[in-house]
Amino acid sequence: MCGITGFTGKEPALPFLLQGLSRLEYRGYDSAGITLVNSKKLRTWKTKGRLAELEKLLQKDLTQSCGIGHTRWATHGVPSNMNAHPHMNEACTISVVHNGIVENYAVLKEELIKEGYHFHSETDSEVIVQLLDYYYSKKPVMKDALIKTVKRLEGSYALCITTIFEPNTIYVAKKESPMVLGQSKEGVFCASDAPALLAYTKDIMPLQDGQMAILNKNSLELFDQNGKSIQPKFIHFPYDIQAAQKGGYDSFMMKEIHEQPDVIRETLRGRFRGNKIVLPKIDELKADWNSISNTVFIACGTAYHACIYANSLYQKYTGKPSSVIPASEFRYCDPNVDEHTLCIFVSQSGETADTLAALKLAKAKGCTTIAVVNVLGSSIARQTDAVLYTAAGPEIAVASTKAYTTQLVLLHVLILKLAELYGIKVNGISRLIKDMKRLPELTEETLGYEKEIKKYAKMLKDQRDAYFIGRQLDYPSALEGALKLKEVSYVHADAYYAGELKHGPIALIEKNTVVIALATQPEIAAKTISNIKETVARGARVILITDPDMDAKEFKYVIRIPKMRPELMAIPSAVLTQLFAYYAAKEKGCDIDKPRNLAKSVTVE
Ligand code: AGP
Hints:
By secondary structure, the protein is α/β, with parallel strands linked by helices. The protein is 35% helix and 23% strand.
């Protein structure tokens, strides 16, 4: 996710560009840049770091009235001055900012290098400006060059382009990454999201996939990928800036819960070729896979719960020995790891002190190390032998939601890749991959249960405790559901293996105790159902999360997850328990995005 702004009009562009980028920093903030253009020159300033670093580079009297800006959330190429946007062609006559992922950038880069082009960054985005240069050099019409360029791009993009050949014009294109246009008597605007525009205009128009636009000082032309003209339709945007930054939701947590279908789609993008798993970073890892005698998953908090899920899948798919150790314990438990051990570290921030300390010990013991992180270029990402990135984008709420579900998804892909490298065939992999590709829509469908969950959360109004129970792959879901509830609503919650209740914890169950039961695994669900009945017999109010085929007529509060392979049900289960925690916290008037005592990244031991 990155932030883009663009303006052309009667006024200087710089104030809008900077103001807009500051409103979009929640979309990415590891580097920033702008291009300003007039009839004589196209000038670009860009730097690693936050917007304030960029502002230090800018003179105050920059009056050019056409320009584009970008604040980056790195996906390809670590945060650096060279990798920051905008990217320009060699002749510095064209400048581009991009939000999205060009899946086929390597192929395009190869082609352009053969045509004599040189590349200066590690980004996928740089191929876009070089392609534009290539097509423009064949026929100097930027609209045609843009149409030809986007036809070659596979993946997602929101683009803004300026060129010295048309110093008052901005070209825009959109596919799967957001772009909105705005207009006022000052000029015409574009941005990744409405908050950037609202101080200047509330008349906005979200672009649709495949649409392109040509913005001039006081006019705009809208057309489709065949160049066919489209009538622009502006709407009056109903929200203020703060609400717009949260996508119209009342908290970043709720916005991020609803972003999960999109970020799961981005995390899965390009990972499958038929039944083959596409993870080049793992293919390039120099590891003797046959000599790996054990695998250890290591993380903290929510990421630790993702490791418990991954550990179960690893054993199911590969049959090889593995374990999970909380990072805060790893360096004190004299772990039995050595050069024949694969250690997999999971971290949203990539900066968690306990996880970093565990990584240091694992490396000292000669382990092969892989990281699954969300922040490109973070400390953990830089120190492991290979790193895979979730595409969750910046996660602003302290309680992790979209980072967790994208960790589950990417760990699942990684384990399928490891099975491939071990030469092990995973039964039913075609159906599994088919269902994985449907996860964005299945997650969207699961969000449809929000109203029921909101109703069920009211049960906690007078409760101080809640219990989450599940077996097998439902157990990490129970752990994560309990953590989410504790984090945001301060209701005490515990998670138990359902089969463990009768060995003690059931003593806690009394009339009206709230139990969230997860029974999504068909092979074991009947056992779980009988455990749940034990709690009902003692007066518990049970909210059952189960699959469509489960016989649950005895239960009053039932949420049925959409049909999919049971190994994937942890993802919709997480979405449901996130919503449950959110509404429980709302009921109690808690600070949803910044819960008491918590930090987003625990960089101290
Ligand atoms: C999750 O809701 C918590 N904020 C916390 O448990 C977090 O998952 C943990 O601190 C690990 O952080 P990391 O993923 O950035 O390493």
